[in-house]
Design brief:
The chain is 27% helix and 24% strand. The protein contains 9 helices and 11 strands. β1 and β2 form a beta hairpin. The strands form 3 sheets. The protein has a 5-stranded mixed beta sheet. A 4-stranded antiparallel beta sheet has the order 3-4-8-9, with no helix packed on it. The protein has a two-stranded antiparallel sheet with strand order 7-10. The two termini are 15 Å apart. The longest helix is centred in the first third of the chain and has 14 residues.
């Protein structure tokens, strides 16, 4: 049996009385595609609904080492396949740098060695893919919040945008989260998996782990992180590649 509640159960749990009845009715409406588009049409409306209906600070379940999956499939791209990425991988990412910019006071250019020297969090969590599979694995790396604080993120920032090495057409993969998830203690920049450095299939040299959202939000092959005040200038304005192209929800909470 799954130890994680489905999204609908999270949304309805903890509400009682009239509020519970109201949410139950909204839930039935939200099953209709047209109603979903109305409910989640606006950036600010969606954020407001999330904050009202979910405990954004709650922790994702963590597991024992003996509960880890014997096989952990790769999600999304298995290898960026570009000459630039191939050169970085051939040099074991010695020349790779993570750029941190946007609405920050101190832009950063971090090597993998520098990121490895930051205080790291180790967590064993479950990855839930939008394709319907799940796996439990161990991840290690610094909290994203630590990096954002080192870059002196500005008060006007509302979102964090991730740009990756893998291309879809001629466009880099991109994703975004808000600052609530960015500073969640389980949101980390993982350089390690299951006791080893990340391999290429799982996102080397660095990937996002945002443990309370579905797998497509866990951007791999990170190249750049930018703090922004709006998603309107990112892609088509919905905050991520799949959100822009196949209408996935921007907030993929589980």
């Amino acid at each position: 049996m799954s130890l994680l509640l489905p999204r609908r159960a999270i949304l309805t749990g903890g509400l009682t009385g009239g509020a519970g009845l109201l949410l139950s009715g909204c839930d039935r409406i939200a099953r209709q595609p047209t109603a979903r588009k109305i409910l989640f049409a606006g950036e600010d409306m969606q954020k407001g609904l999330q904050r009202a209906l979910t405990d954004r600070g709650a922790l994702a379940p963590e597991y024992r080492r003996d509960q880890m999956s014997p096989i952990f499939r790769t999600n999304g791209t298995r290898n960026p396949g570009t000459p630039e990425y191939a050169a970085l991988a051939a040099a074991r990412f010695a020349d790779w740098r993570l750029q941190v910019g946007g609405l920050v006071g101190t832009p950063l250019s971090l090597s993998l060695a520098q990121i490895g020297q930051m205080p790291a969090r180790r967590q064993i969590t479950r990855h839930d893919c939008v394709e319907g599979w799940s796996a439990i694995g161990e991840w290690m790396g610094p909290m994203l919040g630590t990096v954002l604080q080192a870059a002196a993120i500005r008060s006007r920032a509302r979102y964090v945008v991730f740009t990756c090495a893998d291309l879809y057409g001629d466009q880099p993969y991109y994703e975004s989260i808000d600052l609530v998830d960015a500073f969640h203690p389980q949101t980390i920049l993982a350089w390690g998996m299951n006791g080893h450095m990340l391999d290429i299939g799982h996102g080397a040299p660095l990937r996002l782990r945002v443990e309370r959202q579905l797998g497509y939000k866990h951007a791999k092959y990170l190249m750049r992180i930018d703090a922004v005040d709006s998603l309107s200038g990112i892609g088509a304005g919905k905050g991520g590649y799949w959100e822009d192209h196949v209408d996935y929800d921007w907030y993929a909470g589980i």
